[in-house]
Design a protein that fits this description.
Length: 119
């Protein structure tokens, strides 16, 4: 399990086409990608299971705890991105609730775009 950051501070200011915003790049893939949004309510959990393909969980709102194969939980919050390799056992839970975008694909390489926060 690796934890990355896609917070505003990691982004790049975009001014092309009279734009004015910060872009935090996340991922690029040439293979099929599945993108979903997960809404975990208070005391919600994504149970302990193996990743079918490499998976990137982007915490958009709220906070929670994640773990990989070790029985050690790490706090995550808005702006964190958690990456699990194919077949890696993992779990996500929250006391207060969280909303996350999940990106799943055979070809994910978060190292190309995001700053590593925890390895």
């Amino acid at each position: 399990m690796k934890i990355y950051s896609f917070r505003k501070e990691e982004g790049k200011k975009i001014t092309k086409y009279d734009s004015n915003f910060i872009m935090s790049r996340i991922i690029q893939s040439e293979k099929p990608v599945h993108v979903g949004c997960m809404h975990l309510e208070k005391n919600g959990v994504i149970g302990y299971h193996q990743a079918v393909v490499p998976q990137l969980l982007l915490i958009m709102n709220g906070e929670g705890l994640v773990r990989g194969e070790r029985d050690e939980y790490i706090k995550v919050q808005s702006g964190d991105a958690v990456f699990w390799e194919k077949d890696e056992w993992h779990e996500t839970k929250t006391d207060l609730g969280l909303t996350a975008i999940v990106i799943e694909s055979e070809e994910l390489n978060p190292d190309s775009f995001m700053a590593l926060r925890i390895n």
